[in-house]
Design brief:
The protein is of the alpha+beta class and about 1400 residues long. About 40% of the residues lie in helices and about 15% in strands.
Length: about 1400
């Protein structure tokens, strides 16, 4: 997969044009002009120039003008039109529309006095420019100083461009860096974020960088000031300290685990060579810890051991200095990579004794992140030996299939490529709901300030009015600033101090359910779902766009070799398939392949004498003459030659004589072997054999023998190569050995029922050069010396770029046609070609190639240039097609995602035809979809205008090269994104990893984070888009675990995305919403009673509650109900959410947490607070003998205790029962704990409360025992709670009766499983808005008066859809239609009558 998704070659820049060419254009085409005159500054001109990619020579100043011209062009409505229509009515309507103009951006400059092009700036440097340059220089110097100082504080060292050190095994102590004169870094690594000394300072800074914590710290500081706080001095500081301590402890525990992992990693042991000179010079292998390894050490690594640092491979016990490493921990790829030591070092430095005499100097590039390139040289034995990535073993790899190797340590610790790649800055992700939460917090802050200011004003007014009549108000009074801050302290906890900490606990519990969901467990791979973050759980329930990779994500990434094309004929590779009888095969061969009647007759006579079948005499002897092919110096067996034939002339093939085989006569590869066996020394025989030889040679697979099965097993660099190598083995071409210099093949004759076990041939092919696959070339070539001494280049290509260097003949045309057919079937294709190279030409080219290998600068570019030089004048060999099977359940999952309002964009590196076919297979493209093909010639403005009012399902298909052109123009990119947002799906083929990330980032920024994006992939090339999206999902597939490790959540199959979003995502969104609203509600309900009490306390700022009871409310008496609803709430059951995808839209539309709902909850809290305060205070005047004190009002603690008790009841019942759908044993238990806990607290606290002067205001001792024995207390509580909750309960029932939501409807339906089952069957009929007057076009095959059977059973979802009357309107092909919203009366009556019938059956109209 990683090989598929490469960088796309950039096209030529066409923005720059000369003046003369622009003047020749017709001025009537100029429809818009933008003038830039002297009023624009130079900076403005530079900005315009950079943004619009203009050539400097085309920008004018002073008296000249710069114009942007838009030239119209016509929309191509032919077969090559960028819009492909499946629906015939839409095709006709759109093609009949008038031709619309497009806008092509061009530039020109006109000068009336000259036709020459003037430079951009034509003036002498002024004082202003000198000052600006001086300021710029000084600012750059300041920025560099700040950056250096910051790096010094953080312990970072400046970047080092090169590394040079002398190699001396006798050297004692660390080697010094010649550039910095300091030792190179040690080999210890640190993945932890903190040390013992900086943990607390960094954590305090991190905690108080949150606005909420800073706000509460400010409030706690105000409380400490004497006489300012009526609620005690530490009621905010203590809870704040507890919550911050919990957050710090959690972060500390996570970092402690990282320290333990680092300790285990750094203390692993490795073997180094230490030099000793007691009685002679010799080297002894010594075990040391990894952290003690230093640059310049000589290391011995044995099979199955980890590589402890970045090493230079000096020698290997493998053949010719070859070793194999596994890089799964580094790049996620499970295949083995091959490395080879230099011949000079491998032959001379292969033992401890020889290494003890090793002297030299190593020069290389400095540490960098590039895993795939290394440039440097080694001064050894008087030579400069050039080094490449082929001699480098990276830390994090494992030595495989090699006894042992010796290496030189180059980079250690944090300078290794593994650690350099691990230190990237990743975008910090925050939940989408946090934006609304921040707005809510600001609203509450404004309310608190307003309430405090109002109470301050009322207090001042009351004192002013009552100062003369009330003697106790005379004298010194508090200033209004003190009063204001006192009220601010009283009301500050309306913003819940425990919100973020308890939300973290809730989300941790949610990921436990995700990780342990048995329905997302894959038994085949023993892989459960895994959550790597808890921060963005609720985003899973709000996804609007899904960006998915194809290979390994939608498909299995199990490559199956399916078809091949050779000599203009396709063959199906099916070992278990039915073969065509040999005689029938040869009879068909007389029509489609180059063989005559006489040849067939002679073959039949010699090979099948027992068969008396005769062929008709109408065979044409002149179809294609059969030529016996002989070669000098060829190595042949009895029946076949392994040397390629000379190029045949196109004239020997008659296109008219080539007839396609019917469906009953599909040839497979067993038939191919039969033809090779029966047609020796023919053109077909030679070409077919040579193609099979190319398949078995043009790859980098490594054979291994399985001792148990005595079979050859291949280690491949990609699944494609693995499939091709195994197919070659199935066809008798078995690679038995591979070294750096040659490949050994065993070639068997595998014709069924005719093969001879002794009829095999062993041949060796010398490898001269390997031109490796690159993302730019997208092809691979290998140059061999064949057994007859000739030099041949074998090339295979993934793209169509190879067509331009092929000879054009009939076989080439047929093969290219087969490639397109394979791609249309959704297969991954490879085109094979070859070329024989003359000895002199090869020697000249190889000399340049070897020089390029020794370059340190532009090495890759030079190699690609030389590859293009040798890969020319190629002759086609054949083509292969490999199937990447769709994963189980992918089409059904994408269908459900669409019904849930989620748009799916597929981003892949495959060809356009393959991507479109996979789009059809996985249901991204529907039968009735409008397909919009965008290439470099497409007019986006016209397309956007043309499809402005079209409501049908639209799918965009674009390639990476076209996207590269579009992204260079901001205007075109904006138009493209608008068109993409308008369409239902998008397929981007030939996309590079950076382009995948670009599309995700563009949609995220275009929508201003108003919609949630999700990216899902399985390979290392998907990491960029996974990290760019709001939610990143990794598939634990066959390309390794790197994507999964970099993701937020990981699943094993794409179909599990349905469970993750529809169930866990929706539940998390509902739970977090209700938790947040419940937390805000309980704080408003409780702390607002303090403000209401001021009406009865002359706005004195007196607290209604005792200070520690006040501080304990959030944690002890109201926390469990909101936590339970945040962890266990299920508004609908698992199966219901899975079967009815449209219920997912509740999160996309923010229907559970928005400003409107927040105000509704706060309005309820205010009403409850008013009821809870007013009723107990009013009732005290009616009940006799209720007062504690004779003849006086109730003591303030007693009144506060009654109101507090009512609040505990109201909040617990409201959250646990009125706002929660599922009443479980957990909710009952926590409600009981909250209420009983309050009373138990009162019993204990009434005895434990201290008596001192400061607490005289609150007479706590024994109050609850005395009050609790009176019926008036319980009557007051019961009446207050009832009066507060019953209106809310009645309002909820009334709302459900008048206008119930879909959720409430299905909640009722879940009470009757049979009824719910019938509803789900109706829901899956998949009919859409027929009463919407738009341009939908439907076809009807015939009137169907069949009544819907409510008891009907369907075997599959497809049968359900096809059985629906409405389904006939969508998928039938009759000519009766609805055009432009004009519905035929009979058909409309039938449609709406059927919908009415469904509604009577209990279905809800969509």
């Amino acid at each position: 997969m990683t090989s598929n998704d490469g960088n796309v070659t950039k096209g030529k820049d066409t923005n720059s044009q000369t003046l003369n060419s622009l003047e020749s254009e017709n001025s009537s085409n100029f429809i818009n002009t933008i003038n830039i005159n002297d009023n624009y500054s130079e900076a403005t001109l530079n900005i315009l120039q950079n943004d619009l990619n203009f050539d400097e020579s085309l920008v004018s100043t002073k008296s000249e003008q710069k114009c942007y011209h838009f030239q119209s062009s016509k929309l191509n409505s032919s077969a090559n039109s960028p819009i492909t229509f499946t629906n015939p009515f839409l095709h006709a309507s759109l093609n009949s529309s008038p031709q619309l103009s497009t806008s092509r951006l061009s530039t020109s400059r006109y000068n009336s006095t000259t036709n020459s092009v003037t430079p951009i700036i034509q003036r002498n440097p002024s004082m202003t420019s000198q000052i600006k340059n001086s300021i710029t220089t000084r600012m750059n110097a300041i920025n560099n100083f700040v950056k250096s100082f910051r790096d010094f504080i953080r312990g970072r060292k400046p970047d080092v461009l090169s590394r040079e050190f002398l190699i001396d095994p006798d050297h004692k102590g660390p080697i010094l860096d010649a550039q910095t004169n300091t030792p190179y870094v040690n080999n210890s690594i640190t993945t932890s974020r903190y040390t013992f000394y900086n943990f607390l300072p960094k954590q305090l800074y991190a905690q108080f960088s949150r606005a909420a914590n800073l706000y509460f710290l400010f409030m706690a500081t105000l409380q400490i000031i004497p006489d300012w706080s009526p609620t005690g001095q530490f009621t905010t500081l203590v809870p704040l300290s507890i919550f911050i301590s919990l957050s710090i402890a959690r972060e500390g525990f996570d970092d402690y685990r990282r320290h333990r992992q680092d300790f285990a990693e750094n203390n692993k042991e490795c073997t180094v060579l230490r030099i000793y000179n007691p009685n002679g010079r010799f080297a002894i292998p010594t075990k040391i810890k990894w952290k003690d390894l230093r640059v310049g050490d000589l290391v011995l690594i044995k099979a199955q051991e980890w590589v402890p640092a970045d090493l230079l491979l000096l020698s290997s016990k493998g053949e010719n200095g070859v070793c194999y490493i596994e890089t799964a921990a580094l790049d996620g790829e499970t295949n083995l990579k091959q490395r080879k030591a230099l011949e000079e070092t491998n032959s001379m430095l292969n033992s401890p004794d020889s290494l003890s005499e090793f002297r030299g100097k190593l020069c290389a590039k400095g540490p960098d992140q590039d895993l795939y390139n290394f440039d440097g040289y080694l001064e050894f034995n008087g030579k400069n030996l050039q080094l490449s990535n082929n001699q480098i073993l990276l830390r994090g790899t494992i030595l495989r299939n090699t006894p042992e190797i010796y290496g030189l340590v180059i980079f250690t610790g944090e300078e290794t490529k593994l650690r350099m790649n691990a230190s990237k800055n990743i975008r910090t992700k925050a939940p989408n709901m946090q934006k609304i939460m921040n707005r809510v917090i600001f609203i509450l802050l404004f309310f608190v300030l307003l309430l405090a200011a109002t109470c301050t004003y009322m207090s001042a007014n009351w004192i002013r009015r009552g100062k003369d009549s009330n003697w106790y108000l005379r004298g010194n009074t508090r200033d209004m600033v003190t009063v204001f801050f006192s009220f601010l302290i009283i009301f500050n906890t309306m913003i819940p101090i425990s919100l973020y900490v308890t939300m973290e606990v809730v989300k941790l519990a949610q990921i436990y359910f995700i990780n342990n969901d048995i329905r997302m467990y894959n038994e085949e791979t023993d892989t459960p779902a895994e959550s790597r973050t808890s921060t963005i759980n609720e985003d899973l329930g709000q996804v609007k766009y899904v960006f998915t990779d194809k290979t390994g994500t939608l498909t299995e990434n199990i490559m199956l070799f399916r078809q091949l094309s050779v000599c203009g004929q396709k063959f199906l590779h099916d070992k278990d398939g039915n073969r065509i009888d040999t005689e029938d095969l040869l009879k068909m061969l007389s029509i489609s392949l180059p063989i005559s009647k006489k040849a067939i007759t002679s073959i039949l006579t010699s090979k099948r004498q027992k068969n008396n079948t005769h062929y008709s005499e109408d065979l044409n002897d002149e179809i294609i003459p059969t030529a016996s092919v002989t070669r000098q110096n060829s190595v042949t067996s009895n029946n076949f030659s392994m040397i390629a034939p000379r190029s045949s002339t196109p004239s020997s093939y008659s296109m008219k004589s080539k007839k396609l085989l019917n469906d009953q006569s599909i040839l497979n590869t067993l038939d191919l072997l039969t033809l090779i066996h029966y047609l020796p020394n023919t053109i077909f025989d030679q070409r077919a054999k040579f193609f099979l030889l190319a398949m078995s040679l043009c790859h980098t697979c490594v054979p291994e023998f399985d001792n148990e099965t005595d079979d050859v097993i291949y280690q491949a660099a990609s699944p494609d190569e693995f499939a091709i190598a195994n197919a070659s083995k199935d066809l008798g071409y078995i690679m038995t050995d591979r070294s750096m210099g040659k490949i050994s093949l065993k070639i068997n004759d595998l014709v069924p029922n005719m093969s001879d076990e002794n009829n095999s041939l062993n041949q060796d092919f010398q490898i001269l050069n390997i031109l490796e696959f690159s993302s730019k070339r997208k092809r691979m070539s290998v140059i061999y010396r064949l057994p007859d001494g000739r030099i041949c280049l074998f090339c295979k290509d993934k793209t169509t770029d190879l067509y331009s260097v092929l000879d054009d003949n009939w076989i080439c045309q047929q093969t290219i046609r087969h490639l397109h057919e394979f791609a249309i079937e959704g297969l991954r294709t490879l085109l094979y070609a070859h070329r024989f190279i003359e000895e002199d030409e090869y020697l000249s080219w190889n000399k340049q190639f070897q020089e390029a290998l020794n370059l340190l600068i532009n090495k890759r570019e030079k190699i690609d240039e030389l590859a293009e030089l040798i890969e020319r004048d190629l002759e086609i060999t054949g083509a292969t097609a490999i199937e990447d099977k769709l994963q189980r359940g992918v089409p059904e999952t994408i269908d459900k995602l669409r019904l849930a309002g989620i748009k799916v964009w597929m981003l892949t590196g495959d060809k356009r035809e393959t991507a479109i076919n996979i789009g059809h297979s996985c249901s991204i493209i529907k039968d009735h979809s409008i397909l919009i093909n965008i290439d470099q010639t497409t007019d986006l403005i016209t397309i956007s205008n043309l499809l402005k009012d079209v409501k049908n399902h639209m799918v965009i298909v674009i390639d990476g090269e076209s996207l590269m052109k579009i992204e260079q123009d901001l205007l075109l990119m904006d138009l493209f994104l608008d068109l993409g947002l308008k369409c239902d799906a998008l397929i981007c083929c030939r996309a590079s990893p950076s382009q995948k990330a670009l599309l995700v980032r563009s949609i995220r920024e275009k929508s201003k984070d108003s919609v949630v994006t999700l990216a899902i992939g399985d390979g290392a090339n998907d990491i960029a888009m996974i990290q760019e999206a709001h939610v990143g999902i990794g598939i634990t597939g066959r390309e390794g675990l790197q994507a999964a490790r970099s993701s937020d959540y990981s699943i094993s199959q794409f179909r599990f995305l349905e469970n993750l979003l529809f169930v866990h995502g929706r539940w998390s969104y509902i739970r977090v919403s209700k938790f947040a609203l419940g937390t805000l509600y309980k704080c408003m309900c409780f702390y607002l009673t303090q403000g209401l009490f001021q009406l009865f306390a002359a706005f004195s700022g007196s607290s209604l509650y005792e200070q520690w009871s006040l501080a304990s409310y959030n944690t002890l008496f109201s926390s469990l109900p909101v936590m339970v609803i945040g962890i266990f709430e299920k508004d609908l059951n698992y199966d219901t959410l899975m079967e009815i995808p449209r219920l997912y839209k509740i999160g996309q539309e923010n229907n559970q947490f928005n400003i409107k709902i927040f105000f509704s909850w706060m309005f309820g809290a205010i009403c409850h607070a008013i009821s809870i305060v007013s009723i107990p205070i009013l009732l005290h005047g009616f009940f006799h003998n209720y007062e504690i004190r004779v003849g006086g009002s109730p003591q303030i603690f007693e009144l506060g205790m009654v109101i507090y008790t009512c609040i505990v009841f109201v909040v617990t019942i409201h959250i646990s029962y009125l706002q929660s759908h599922n009443w479980t044993g957990v909710s009952h238990f926590t409600s009981f704990i909250m209420i009983c806990g309050w009373f138990a607290y009162q019993v204990m606290y009434s005895y434990a409360y201290p008596i001192d002067n400061k607490s005289a205001m609150y007479d706590v001792r024994g109050v609850f025992q005395r009050v609790g024995n009176k019926t008036t207390f319980w009557s007051t509580v019961l009446l207050t709670v009832s009066f507060a909750l019953i209106p809310h309960f009645i309002l909820k029932i009334f709302r459900n009766l008048i206008k119930s939501t879909d959720v409430e409807f299905y909640q009722e339906a879940e009470k009757d499983p049979q009824y719910l089952k019938k509803l789900i069957e109706c829901e899956n009929l998949d009919y859409e808005n027929f009463d919407n007057e738009d341009s939908h076009k439907f076809n009807i095959e015939e009137k169907d008066d069949t009544k819907f059977d409510i008891n009907q059973n369907f075997n599959s979802s497809l049968e359900k859809r096809n059985s629906s009357l409405i389904a006939h309107y969508q998928y039938s092909s009759s000519s009766t239609s609805i055009i432009d919203g004009n519905i035929d009366g009979n058909m409309a009556q039938m449609v709406f009558s059927q919908i009415t019938c469904y509604e009577r059956k209990g279905c809800r109209k969509i």
